[in-house]
């Protein structure tokens, strides 16, 4: 059986996450700072800990499902699960410099 390279899978997962955009902000969810953690198990199961810009975000129901489905399309990934947390709550400080620049905040 092929050995699982968690870091390699993690990097591929991040590339997928960078293709998913917040519908209200023209920046991907990774650069927005919505992704808190990407964990890859020895079985190539991926768990993503993420937040939303607010608890009553209009995509609260659909965005986690979209993230799970897109990550599951990676052939290296066995399964994917998204956990939503609001601890710590999202703030503009979590955004990358690139995202702040894109939104004219720098």
Automatic annotation (TrEMBL):
Listed name of the protein: PaaD-like protein
Gene source species: Nonlabens tegetincola
